[in-house]
Design a protein that fits this description.
The chain is α/β, with parallel strands linked by helices. The protein folds into two domains: 242 residues, Rossmann fold (3-Layer(aba) Sandwich), CATH 3.40.50; 80 residues, TATA-Binding Protein. Helix content is 37%, strand content 21%. The protein has 13 helices and 14 strands. A hairpin with a 4-residue loop joins β9 and β10. α4 packs parallel to α6 and α4 packs across α11. The chain is globular, with a radius of gyration of 23 Å. The chain starts with a helix and ends with a helix. The relative contact order is 0.10.
């Protein structure tokens, strides 16, 4: 019996050493990078990253974190894979688009095939102030993979309320931008922009090329690695903007933009974008197969600019009070005060998706 137990123990030790060797080999090149090393790799393995949005930026970031051996990855997305996504959203394939698989589920499937050791939590949900807060326990960094500023300002408030760093990222056309926000140290998004910007260009109105996505994601992931291994001194303290097509690259110092009176990160915090009055309002109009979307504040749209952007998607008509765009299956009606009717659906989720894709 003793011999058997001894042999069994020897076998277990050999198996453990083999598993350790495989683990070391897997991340060996990453560990050779001295700023990470074996200690940094252990830290990464014990950290939790939350990605909000599993589109172009979110899927690129998710793959990078999983390949790097992150301990836990939570992915939130409300949408499903479409054919137009495949040009730049690297985790998905034609089968995902043909079957309209939710992005969170498709991402989870492909990521597990890349690294089965990572704990992956995939959530099909519309990220909002009232449900994101419940998901932040144990999160070490938040990655912005969203497509609109309404959610970004909510993330900004949550980041400071729960003291979790977050990394902003956006891209459209050949442009990209990214900024790392550390509660208590850097200016926050509210300091920089003060309020939710009026609708701007989106991928659906201005297009996008994949190199812009990859550059933004690379900067986001690199900054996240610094946070995960506790190398905060090496974080980039500038707002980075670039145009990969025209070879422009700008890095803007924002240190002086931090405001003591900021309602998100200042001395008298109220976290304004977590309150109902500062959130987007949606409602289904009874009997009209229509959803009304009312932004968090009044927006004075330029109908001239809006007409130029939307005419490529459908027939545009306007009068002094409203502008409408007839799409293939839906009709958007935009009022001067920023309210929008989405005719042709009672689905709030679909209406919001159309709104953000076309109006920013």
């Amino acid at each position: 019996m003793q011999e058997y137990c001894y042999e069994e123990k020897i076998g277990e030790n050999i198996l453990e050493r083999k598993e350790e060797s495989l683990l070391t080999d897997r991340y060996s090149r990453q560990q050779l990078f001295k700023q990470i090393g074996s200690n940094g790799q252990k830290k990464i393995k014990n950290k939790h990253v939350l990605i909000v949005g599993a589109g172009a930026l979110g899927s690129a970031g998710a793959e990078a974190f999983v390949r790097a051996g992150i301990g836990k990855l939570t992915i939130i997305d409300r949408d499903y894979v479409e054919w137009s996504n495949l040009q730049r959203q690297q985790l998905y394939n034609e089968a995902d688009a043909e079957c309209q698989i939710p992005k969170a589920i498709a991402a989870e499937k492909h990521l597990k095939q890349i690294n089965s050791e990572v704990e992956i939590e995939a959530l099909i949900m519309d990220a909002k102030a009232d449900n994101l807060g419940n998901l932040l326990s144990g999160v070490d960094v938040i990655i912005d993979g969203t497509d609109n500023f309404d959610i970004r300002f909510i993330l900004n408030d949550l980041s400071h309320k729960y003291n979790i760093p977050w990394i902003y990222g956006s891209c459209v056309g050949s442009y990209g931008a990214t900024y790392t926000i550390i509660p208590g140290r850097t200016p926050c998004l509210h300091c920089i922009l003060k309020e939710v910007p009026a609708g701007g260009a989106t991928c659906d109105t201005a297009g996008i090329i994949s190199p812009a996505v990859q550059i933004v994601s690379a900067y986001q992931v690199a900054e996240a690695f610094k946070i995960l291994v506790d190398d905060f001194s090496m974080l980039r303290n500038t707002f980075l903007l670039f145009d990969v097509w025209s070879n422009q690259h700008h890095s803007i110092k924002l240190t002086k933009m931090k405001k003591e009176g900021c309602l998100t990160c200042g001395t008298m915090r109220t976290y304004p974008y977590l309150s109902y009055e500062n959130q987007m309002k949606t409602e289904v109009l009874c009997g009209r197969n229509t959803v009304q979307i009312r932004p968090s504040r009044s927006i004075g749209y330029s109908f001239d600019q809006m007409e130029k952007r939307l005419c490529v998607h459908g027939k545009v008509a306007r009068n002094p009070y409203l502008l409408s765009c007839q799409l293939q299956n839906y009709r958007l009606v935009i009022f001067r005060d920023g309210r929008v009717f989405i005719h042709g659906t009672n689905s709030i989720q679909l209406a919001k998706s159309l709104y953000h894709r076309l109006l920013g």
